[in-house]
Every structure is written in structure tokens, then in C-alpha cells.
Amino acid sequence: MWKGARMSENNAFIKLQESANGRVSVKLQKNQFAKDGTESYYGKVERYTYSTQNILDAMADAVPLVDLGTVTSVLNAYANTVLKVLAAGNAVKFGELGTFYIAGKGTVESGNGKPKLTVKFSATQTLRDAVQNVEIASSEYVAPSGMITNVTDVATGKADGSLTSGGSVLVEGSSLKVGGENSGIWFAPVTESGEINSDESLWIKVESALIYNQPSKLLFALPQSLSDSKYKIVVRTRYAGKSGYERKYLVEAVSGTVTLA
């Protein structure tokens, strides 16, 4: 059915069909570069991704006379062909959706320098129109925050909340890299109700150099002044990723309760 298919430049092989309008959720984040003290936000759409298998199943349903194996083979062959054409230095038109093309990335230091190359996609008006009627089901501001998922005692290898006095600890999670004014790591005493003591003068800061200081993990020696009590580890940072900019506000991550033995 596919063999021998040919088309002119104006007769794209993809014929888009209208579909029911979808719904998305949007998380708002503050624009840290707003001018003149004005407050504005930008939206980040929560992404729900169709897997390759999802697409294959949908294509097989759309063309019932072609078996799933054939659809899979055609899709794989098309992907490999696109890679070869791009690798040869060409742009690739993807039917009525748009065009993959090679673009320069970053800057160079001289008039005859060679920039790094990357691949970009230029959407057609048809593709842009397809998302204009998607309904925004919810839109809300969510303050950025870090997350601590694991606290591991290096001496024992256990992640059960018990830490060896005088040892080291590995903290894992996201948005943890320490950097910027007033950033750091603290051990905050926990009250009988399990809450952090709000008196920050009682918090014990990690003053030693960090062995690992990465967005996903921190490794450091425990402060010598810690007692045999219950604490929660608090990480505060202004680190904003590879952009090199510091956040205007501190992002905070808090662990579960840990106990020194």
C-alpha cells in the first residue's frame, strides 16, 4: 500500500484531521527579569507525552488495512531517513507540520570561527493553529522549591534516617546545589510535634566544604556540634542552573526527620 507512493511539493503526505479539543494545566512562574519593578509571570505547560507505542497504536487504528508491524517499519524507516538527510546537511520538511533544520548554537570568538550546530523545528501555521483551541483547565502560581528524596549515612549505607555522629551524609533530590547569598545547609531541631523549630538561631549550619555540590546530590561532613537529637535538613539556595544567574529568592528543600546515633 505504501510502495511507489509519490507526491508533489504541494501535496504533502500528511493530511491533518480535526480532533476534539484537549485540555492542559499550566504552572505559573515569576518572571525574574521583569523591568521597572512590574510583576509578571510566564506559563509552563505540564507535559503528558505520547510514547512511540501510543503513536503506533493510534496510526494502526487510523489505517486499519495496514498491520501494526508495517506501521512500525515505516515509522522506523522514516526516522532513520530523516537522520541521514539532516546528517548530510539538509533541512527536512515534515508534511504539513513543519521543517527540521540545522542551526548554529552559541557564539564564536572570531570572524572565521565555527559555532556548534543543533537541530531546530519550524512549525507551520497549521501546527500552531492546532493548539490554539486547547483548553487551559487550570493555571496557578507555584513557588519554586527543591526536593530531598534520600538521606544516606555514608558510614553505614543506610537511608533510614539514622546518621553516624562525626560521619558524612549524602543528600539526594532536585534543585539542591547550594549557591548565592544566604544559601546553605542547616540541621534544624525538630519539636515534639515533629515540626521544625521556627527559631533559626538554634539551627546548626554546615560550615565544612561540600564534597559534592550538585543539583541532584550533596555530600558533606556532619557538623561536630550536632547532639543526639532529632533534626530536619534544610537546604536553601539561589542557584538557577547553567544560566549563571542567581534567583532573586531562596529555593528551599526540607528532608524528613533524621536522628544522630
What does this structure look like?
The protein is mostly beta strands. It is 14% helix and 36% strand. It contains 3 helices and 15 strands. The chain has a 5-stranded mixed sheet, with no helix packed on it. Helix 1 packs across helix 2. It is elongated. The chain starts with 22 loop residues before the first strand and ends with a strand. The N terminus is likely disordered.
What is the strand and helix layout of this fold?
Elements: E1 23-30, E2 41-45, H1 52-62, H2 68-87, E3 92-94, E4 98-105, E5 116-123, H3 125-130, E6 135-141, E7 147-153, E8 162-163, E9 168-174, E10 184-189, E11 204-205, E12 212-213, E13 217-221, E14 230-239, E15 246-260
Parallel strand pairs: 1-6, 8-15
Antiparallel strand pairs: 1-2, 3-4, 4-5, 7-9, 9-13, 10-11, 10-14, 12-13, 14-15
What's the gist of this structure?
This protein has 3 helices and 15 strands.
Q: Tags for this entry?
A:
single chain; 261 residues; mainly beta; 5-stranded mixed sheet; 4-stranded antiparallel sheet; 3 helices; 15 strands; elongated; disordered N terminus
Structural class: mainly beta
The SSE string, one letter per element, is EEHHEEEHEEEEEEEEEE
Beta-strand proportion: 35-45%
Radius of gyration: 26 Å
The number of strands is 15
Unreliably modeled segments: 1-16
Main β-sheet description: 5 strands, mixed
Q: Helical element count?
A: 3
Proportion of helical residues = 10-25%
Q: Return the average pLDDT rounded to an integer.
A: 86
Which shape, going by the Cα principal axes?
A: elongated
How far is it from the N-terminal to the C-terminal residue, by CA? 71 Å
For the largest sheet, list the strands in their spatial order: 8-15-14-10-11
